[in-house]
Design goal:
EC 3.6.5.4; binds guanosine-5'-diphosphate; GTP binding; Four Helix Bundle (Hemerythrin (Met), subunit A); Rossmann fold; about 60% helix; elongated; about 10% strand; ribonucleoprotein; alpha/beta; cytoplasm
């Protein structure tokens, strides 16, 4: 699917992972090559640029893990970033088909693989989800298209709406809906007509069909080999019709794969499936993790780094605990705690996981502890110097003023944060003493 890109990246990272130490220049050179490889794979320029920038930032801020080489770490960052550009919000293969009969509208240009994909998805719904599916061809321009769908239907054992000559697409869509309701179908799929290029007549027709059928899913089928053209087509269709996802076909070819990488970032729409051949089961859901792995082809390194990072996190946590027990809890520690809270979905996310949360959440709202506050507190810490973070007790009036101004907040807010840090530090100290048998001693008194 991504042979060329994969080979190119493989070359870049082979060199990088073999080196022991990496200078900033090594990373820069490698990333320049990554950028070229992406552009050659027909990834759009802004996407390639943002990609490289994100990797660069993460590579610079990354904690060094002893057991893996810096090059291996960069591979992992690139993998995660690939996954990130490919990822949509939802499970790509899960189509919205509750409330039967659920209409699925299939749109796209002629020759993109729309009819084939319609049948492939119907087969998948039937076999994997046990759904009763009806397919209807609305392509009145090419009678052969209607027959093509009918033949595929027979082949996969899925019903097609009987062909009535002379009917217009809107009438066919209405008839499909009636037939689907009467016949107890779970899903009915509308295979609209395509054109060689986007034109007003095509769009108006698809729009009319959309308005009478109210589709639960509108899937755009585009030829993945057409690279950035596929992305432009998706932008156009989404603007005019509104699409819920994309199916990229012909990904079995040795295409450059750029469409897959740009689609999400440029259109904001997820790729739901990829077509991998002419056969009826040559359809896969688009799993970002697996695809990223395939592009990079360095799964071993990725899992190696993952493991090393886990170890590092445990080591860091242990070191932190030791310091806490001595009552050492500075602004860096507080920042880490606050960030952890943000990561867990902020206060709301944490509360949602606890029983009796709704009530507590109300109280919290009253106290003003929310995501915004967490972010502000982090901003305050970020506007401190390294020395100030490690020794918050040195903060006098002028420093406080500077810090608050730097974060765009009042000194009173900063004072609250300092109080919080002191309280936590005291608490840690007490807990530390308890840990060393202090609690037992207290109980004996
Ligand atoms: P439509 O005009 O958009 O309905 O396109 P068709 O479904 O008729 O497909 C056009 C051609 O592309 C047919 O020969 C299909 O077999 C072929 N095709 C569709 N999807 C794929 C795919 O994922 N891989 C390959 N190799 N061929 C495909």
């Amino acid at each position: 699917m991504f042979e060329n890109l994969s080979e190119r990246l493989g070359g870049v990272f082979d060199r990088l992972t073999k080196q022991g130490a990496l200078s900033e220049d090594d990373v820069k050179t490698a990333l320049r090559e990554v950028r070229v490889a992406l552009l050659e794979a027909d990834v759009s320029l802004p996407v390639a640029r943002d990609f490289v920038k994100a990797v660069q930032e993460k590579a610079t801020g990354q904690a060094v893990t002893k057991s893996v080489t810096p090059g291996q770490q960069v591979v992992k960052i690139v993998h995660d970033e690939l996954k990130h550009v490919l990822t949509g919000d939802e499970d790509p293969g899960k189509l919205k088909i509750d409330n039967p009969p659920a209409p699925i509208l299939m749109v796209g240009l002629q020759g993109g693989g729309k009819t084939t994909t319609t049948a492939k998805i119907a087969k998948r719904l039937k076999e994997r989800d046990g759904k009763k599916v009806l397919m209807a061809s609305l392509d009145v321009n090419r009678p052969a298209a209607m027959e093509q769908l009918q033949i595929l239907g027979v082949q996969i054992g899925v019903d097609t709406l009987p062909i009535v000559k002379g009917e217009d697409p809107v009438a066919i869509a209405k008839r499909a809906k009636t037939q689907a309701s009467l016949g107890g179908y779970d899903v009915y799929m509308l295979d609209t007509a395509g054109r060689l290029s986007i034109d007003e007549e095509l769009m108006a027709q698809v729009e009319a069909v959309r308005d009478v059928s109210n589709p639960r899913e509108t899937l755009l089928v585009v030829d993945g080999l057409t690279g950035q053209d596929a992305v432009h087509t998706a932008e156009n269709f989404d603007e005019r019709i509104g699409i819920s996802g994309v199916v990229l076909t012909r990904m079995d070819g040795d295409g450059r794969g750029g469409a897959a990488l740009s689609m999400r970032a440029v259109t904001g729409k997820p790729i739901r499936f990829v077509g991998l051949g002419e056969k009826m089961d040559a359809l896969e859901t688009f799993e970002p993790d697996r695809i990223a792995g395939r592009i990079l082809g360095m799964g071993d390194i990725v899992s190696l780094v993952e493991k090393a990072q886990q170890t590092l996190e445990v080591e860091q946590a242990e070191r932190m605990m030791k310091r806490f027990q001595k009552g050492q809890f500075n602004m860096n520690d507080l920042k880490m705690q606050l960030e952890q809270m943000m990561k867990m979905g902020g206060m709301e996310g944490m509360l949602a996981m606890m029983p009796g949360a709704a009530k507590m959440q109300k109280q919290m709202d009253g106290a003003g502890i929310d995501d915004k506050m967490l972010r502000q507190q982090i901003a305050l810490i970020q506007s401190m110097t390294k020395r100030e973070r490690a020794n918050p007790q040195i903060l006098q009036a002028s420093r406080k003023k500077r810090i608050a101004a730097g974060a765009g907040m009042e000194v009173s807010e900063l004072n609250k944060l300092l109080k919080m840090q002191r309280q936590m530090s005291d608490m840690m100290k007490k807990m530390g003493k308890m840990g060393k048998g202090g609690m037992l001693k207290q109980a004996m008194k």
